[in-house]
Amino acid sequence: MISRMSLRTCASAIALSAIAMAMSGCQKSPEPTTVGQKVDAAIDKTKDVAADVRTEARTALSDAQTRLNQDGPKVEQRAKAAATLTAKVIDDAAITAQVSAGLARDPDLSAIKIDVDTKDGAVILRGPAPSADARERAGQLARGVLGVVSVDNQLVVKTG
Hints:
The protein is α+β, with helices and mostly antiparallel strands. It has one domain. The protein contains three helices and three strands, in the order ααββαβ.
């Protein structure tokens, strides 16, 4: 008959053996040991990362193309509107400058302060005029400038 102490020792030995066997089955696969194996593993990992990056880049490009298709016409429309507005402002400034220069060349109007304002090609003349004829000439001069669509002659003839 086997003593109780021997039975416990035997059971403990069997349990330890079972644990050791189980743990040996759980070990990770061994790392490459040769330089060639390490290089091959690095190449494989690089290929995997490159494939992931390629997939992400394709997705980003597709998203960008979708946004461009959706927002492109809006951006183009806004750019055209801004260009049109800029052209109008430049045209209005050029009209104002040309009308002012023409008034400065007129001997009766050159010494008098006349305000010239232009918006969308519509010219407004404000200030004094030495005579009714000079007031009329100022209006005609403004109408003769390229780009003027209308003239609001608010010049006031000086009396006495």
